[in-house]
Known about the structure:
Shape: globular
Order of helices and strands: EHEHEHEHEHHEHE
Strand order of the largest sheet: 3-2-1-4-5-6-7
Amino acid sequence: MKFQNKVAMITGAAVGIGRATAIEMAKEGAKLALLDVNPETLDALKKELEVYPVEVVTYICDISDLDRVNEVAADAIQKLGKIDILVNNAALWRDRASFVDSDVNLWKKYFDINVLGTVYVTKAVLPGMLEREWGRIINVASVAGVYGNAKMSCYSATKGAVISLTRALAKEVSEKGVLVNTVSPGSVSPSDVLDIDHTQPSNLSFMGRTGSDRENANLICFLASEEASYIAGQNIQIDGCRKKQ
């Protein structure tokens, strides 16, 4: 199996792309450390994954809490032995407001989670990857970080930061066997829909539909695998041929 003897940590794991990635990695034999802020959906996912013969540990974790992130990472490494793959998926995105009307406190919250949270989790697991000279880090950004979305300036800014972080970090660690890339989804199906193959009509792409959670997870899993051994520092858009907004 693709991820036999590999251990993956996924943030924002309980719904949407995170959940689909956990399912696809479990199918391929990965041990999993799953982080989310919602205990109910996280418990439901753990039960869902019981059909696969892999070890799964779950953590209620707000990734903007540095002490909690370090505690969780240390416990996961102690229980599972290592972290080979990190999927930084957790993020805020739903708030919409014009720049003039946007709340500065909301900007701080978005940067605390979308940017600093990504930094905290990455710093917690990267040293082990460098020591073993093998690792995969996949950051989930957005086309908003590429084009910028009107009335989503704080979200767009944070996702642009994640893309830039990816490119800079990749230049530091690629020669040491750790490959860092970003996946930038366009329109995605609603995260509260349990069918990971669900799509619905969308006028934001030339394909005329949203992307499914499984389609996004498949790209993440590819970048996490040995098959992507010559890909680093890239931002790969998965957007159905996006109509720029």
